[in-house]
Specification:
single chain, 762 residues, seven-stranded mixed beta sheet, six-stranded mixed beta sheet, 15 helices, 32 strands
Amino acid sequence: MSVSSDPTTTEPEGLGLGLGVSLPQADARAKTEGTFPYASDLWAEGLLWAAILRSPHPHARIVSIDTSAAVEMPGVRAVVTHADVPGAATYGRRIADRPVFAAELVRHHGEAIAAVAADHPDTARLAAAAIAVEYEVLEPVTDPEKAFEAPPLHPDGNLIRHIPLRFGDPAATGEVVVEGLYRIGRQDTAPIGAEAGLAVPRPDGGVEIYTASTDPHTDRDLAAACFGLAPEQVKVVVTGVPGATGDREDPGFQIPLGLLALRTGCPVKLTATREESFLGHAHRHPTLLRYRHHADAEGRLVKVEAQILLDAGAYADSSSESLAAAVAFACGPYVVPHAFVEGWAMRTNNPPSGHVRGEGAMQVCAAYEAQMDKLAGKLGLDPAELRMRNVLATGDILPTGQTVTCPAPVAELLAAVRDFPLPSLPMDSPEEDWLLPGGPDGAGEPGAVRRGVGYAIGMVHMLGAEGTDEVSTATVRVQDGVATVICAAVDTGSGFSTLARQIVQETLGVDEVHVAPVDTDQPPAGPATHGRHTWVSGGAVERAAKMVRTQLLQPLAHKFGMSTELLQITDGKITSYDGVLSTTVAEAMEGKELWATAQCRPHPTEPLDESGQGDAFVGLAFCAIRAVVDVDVELGSIRVVEMAVAQDVGRILNPAQLATRIEAGVTQGVGAALTENLRTSRGLVRRPDLTGYALPTSLDAPEIRIVKLVEERDVVAPFGAKPASAVPVVTSPAAVASAVRAATGRPVNRLPIRPQAAVVTG
C-alpha cells in the first residue's frame, strides 16, 4: 500500500484508538503549557549546585592542579579531581578511553578537569574558576590525515578502527570515470534544553541520578564503575527528555554530579550553560571522502572506489559503529558489482565525535550523490534517470555481501519525487521580494536568482549492527480497566510512549493506558537509537499485551468450548466468530488483575570481517528527496524552496507523528547542508553558542511535501514499521547540494555549503 497524500490528514475510518490513528502524545499539553518536568526544573531539600572546570586548551600536559583557593571559598562544600575518583578513572560505551577528569593530559578543548559543589550556582562557578591549573601547552593534532603519522595522543594510539571493504574484481573498470573529494562539517545536536541533572545520595551509600538519559542502564553501569559501587547501588531515573538526536548519550555530565553527591552527602544539581553543552557532548564526525566511480556508456555503475576518514576527536565513543555504517553504505542504495572502500576513524585533539542521527550514512550520502550528479553530467543524462538505472531492490546484494531481504522500494520512491509537480516560480515583483534568498532586507536582485532541482536517495540501518545484542523487556498490567506499561524505553521525542498506548489499546481494547516513568529498577530496554524502540521495545509491549489478552480470553473460551483464536476484541467488545459470545472488555476485566512480562530480540547480526563482509544489519530503510532551491549567484545566498519526500516506512503506526518525524529530519538535514558547522581553529571551538552556531529557524525551513509513504511491511519487524527520522536527515543535505549544483553549475563538494561555492562569475 502507498499513501500519496499528506499523512496528517489520513485517518482510518471507524477507528478512534489503536495503531494507524493519530493519537496525540500524552505529554503534549504539559510541554506546551510549560509544566513538563525537565531535569533543570528539579529541586531537593538541602540542594547544592555543581560547576565543572574545563580546559581552555585542546592539547596540554597538566603540570599541577591547586584547588586550595576553591576549597577555602565560603559556601564551597567539595572539590573533586581525577585523584578523587574512587573507581574506574575512564569510561566509554564501547572503549573505556575517556577520563572522568583529565589527569596528566588534556586532549580536547573543554575537557573536564575538576568539579565543585557549593550552596549557590554563582559560588560554584567562581570556585571552579579559582582552581589553579598549570599547563604545558602542546601542539594539537587537528588534521585526521596527519594523525596517522603524529605521536600517539592516547595510550591506545590514534587509529580507532580501520575497515577495508573488498567486493568483486579489483581490476574491473568502466568506460566513464568520475572522481571527487568531499568534506563534511561538524554538526552539533544543539538540544533545546542543555544538559542538566540532580544526584541524590542514598542511605545505603549509593546514589540516585535524575537526568534526561536515553540509555539509563548503560549510564548506570558506567557511573557505578567510576564510583566504585555495584550497579544496584546506583539508580538512574529518567526525567523529561527535551528531544534527543544523540546528545543525551554522554554520561560525562552525570558522573561528576554523582561523585559530588557521594562526597558531600547532599543532593547536587548541575545545569550546563549553552557553552558547556557545546564543549561537553559529542558531535557528528567531520569527514573527508575521496571517491572514484566507474560506469558503462549507458550509465550503469561498474565499480566504486572510496576512502573515508572520520575525525573521531579525542575519544572513541561510537566512532567504530559510525565507520561501519559509512563503509557499508559508501555506494548508497545502488547496485554496484565491484566496490573497494577503505575507512578509518582517527583520534585527534578536536572535540569528541559520537552518535548523531544517521551517523556515517549521512556523510557518505552527500559524497556518492555528488558522484552520481557528476556521472549524469558527463554522460548527458537526466540526474533522476541515471539514478533510476542503478537503484537497489529487494534481493540485491550490498557491497558487504549481505542480501537485501527487507522491502527496498527505491525505484518507487525516486519515481514519486521525480513526477511530483514542481513549485511555481515567484513573480518578479516587490511583493515577492521576501522569497529571494536573504529575505526582503537582503542585497539580492531577482535577476541574479537561479532555480535548481536536485535529487538524492539515502539509506540507514535499523537497530544496532555487527552483532549487537538487541533486546528489550516490557510488562503490561491491567487492573480495574486501566492498563499500565512498564518498559525502560526512553521516549526522546520519537513517540514511543504514544506507540505503547496504541499497542495496548488495539490488543486489549482498553481505552485508558498509562506508561510508567523510566528508571533502572526496571529491566533494560537499551538505547534510544536507530528507531529500535519502535521495533524492539514496541515488540516487547505487543508480546506482553498478547499474553494478557490470552489470560483474559481463556476463561471465556473455556466456558463456551472454543479456542481463544476464535475470539476477537474490537471497539472494547469481545465477540466470538459465530456471534454466540458478546461482552465488553470492561465486564470481562471486572475484579481481575492481569499482567505479563515479555521480551523481544530480533535475529542476530555479525561483525564485518577483515574484508568488510558480513550480515551486519537487521534491516534497512530508504528515502528519496527532490530539492528545489533558489540561489543568488552573485551573493551565493541560498533559499530552499521545497523538499519533496518519498519514504519507505513499512507501516504507518501514527500518521501525524510520522509526518512530524519526517519534517523534523528534513529540517535537521537542511541545517547540515546550509548553516550548521561547529567551527574550530587549531582545536579551539569558536563561538560555542547559538549565535555562532547557526541553527535553521522557522523562516529557514522549506516547504516539505510528503508525496509518498510506501507501506510495504518488513515481515521480521513486530509491526512491519521502519524508523522514520534518521533517513531524511541522511538524504536531505545531499538533495540540497544536488539542487545547488544544478542551479550554479559549481561542484559543491563541502557541507555546509559556503556562499562562495554558490557564486557564479562571468
